[in-house]
Design goal:
Layout: E1 4-10, H1 17-25, E2 32-37, H2 44-55, E3 59-63, H3 70-81, E4 88-91, H4 102-111, E5 117-121, E6 129-130, H5 134-151, E7 163-166, H6 167-172, H7 184-195, E8 200-204, E9 207-208, H8 219-237
Parallel strand pairs: 1-2, 1-4, 2-3, 5-8, 6-9
Antiparallel strand pairs: 4-7, 5-7
Helix pairs in contact: 5-8, 7-8
Protein name: Dolichyl-phosphate beta-D-mannosyltransferase
Family: Belongs to the glycosyltransferase 2 family.
Domain Glycosyltransferase 2-like: 6-173
C-alpha cells in the first residue's frame, strides 16, 4: 500500500476529474486518491465511480449531499484518511491549477527532507502564476504578504491550496475546531501548524489557472480570508486559539 494519498474535493469538475485521476496514477510514485464530491449535478461522482472499476482500491469516493465549503470537504477527507494509516496526506485542486507532477516534489520534501508540511508555493521565487489577470495576481500576492505580516509566519504563499501534510500534523490539530470553511481554511491550517512548531517548507511550483470548468474563486472570498486573519491572530496572542 502506498504511504501517500491525495484528497481532491470536487464540485462540478466532470470536465477535469478523469484526466486528473489518470495523470496522478501515471506518476512514477504510487499514490492513492480520495475524491470528496459535494453533490455535483454535472455527474462528477458518476465518472469517479466508473473509474473505480478500473483502478480498484487505489481510488476512493466519498459523496456529500451538497456544497458545504472547501474547508469542510478537506476536514471530512482528513478524518476519513487518518484511520487508514497513510503517512503523507495531500490536498489538491481538481482543475489542473496544481500540476500532478509536483506531487512527487512535495512528497520528497516531507519524506527525504523531513518537512512536516510542504507547500506548493506560487510566490517563493517570485510570482509563478499563469493565465490569471494582473488584478487577480496582485490581489492574491498582496493577500499572502498581508497574512505573512499579521501572523509572522515565514511563508511566502500563505493562501496556497497545494499542500502535503505528515499525518502527525493532522493528528495534533483539532480538526473539529477549525473556524474557517472557505478560502481562509488554507491560512488557518498553516497557522496552526506554525503554532505547533512544525517544520514548514515551500516548494516552488507554477500555478496555472483552469482551462476547463468554472472557477469558484472570487475577490470577495480572498478578502473574507484576509479579514478573518486579524481575529485569528488576536486569539492566538491571548492563548484563546485552540490548536
Amino acid at each position: 500500500m502506498p504511504d501517500g494519498i491525495v484528497i481532491i474535493p470536487t464540485y462540478n469538475e466532470n470536465e477535469n476529474i478523469e484526466r486528473l485521476i489518470r495523470n496522478v496514477f501515471s506518476l512514477q510514485r504510487n499514490f492513492h486518491i480520495l475524491v470528496v464530491d459535494d453533490g455535483s449535478p454535472d455527474g462528477t461522482a458518476t465518472t469517479v465511480k466508473l473509474l473505480q472499476k478500473e483502478f480498484g482500491d487505489q481510488l476512493f469516493l466519498q459523496e456529500r449531499k451538497e456544497k458545504s465549503g472547501l474547508g469542510t470537504a478537506y476536514i471530512f477527507g482528513f478524518k476519513w484518511v487518518l484511520p487508514r494509516g497513510y503517512e503523507y496526506i495531500f490536498q489538491m485542486d481538481a482543475d489542473f491549477s496544481h500540476n500532478p507532477n509536483d506531487l512527487i516534489r512535495l512528497y520528497n520534501a516531507c519524506k527525504k527532507k523531513q518537512a512536516d508540511v510542504a507547500i506548493g508555493s506560487r510566490y517563493k521565487t517570485g510570482v509563478n502564476v499563469v493565465n490569471w489577470p494582473m488584478s487577480r495576481v496582485l490581489l492574491s500576492w498582496l493577500a499572502s504578504r498581508y497574512v505573512r505580516l499579521i501572523t509572522a509566519m515565514p511563508i511566502y504563499d500563505t493562501t496556497a491550496g497545494f499542500v502535503c501534510y505528515r499525518r502527525k500534523v493532522l493528528e495534533r490539530i483539532h480538526l473539529d475546531k477549525i473556524q474557517f470553511i472557505g478560502y481562509a481554511f488554507q491560512i488557518e491550517m498553516k497557522f496552526k501548524a506554525y503554532l505547533l512548531k512544525m517544520r514548514i517548507v515551500e516548494v516552488p511550483v507554477i500555478f496555472t489557472d483552469r482551462t476547463r470548468g468554472t472557477s469558484k474563486m472570487s475577490g470577495s472570498i480572498i478578502w473574507e480570508a484576509v479579514f478573518g486573519v486579524v481575529k485569528m491572530k488576536f486569539k492566538s496572542l491571548f492563548n484563546k486559539m485552540s490548536i
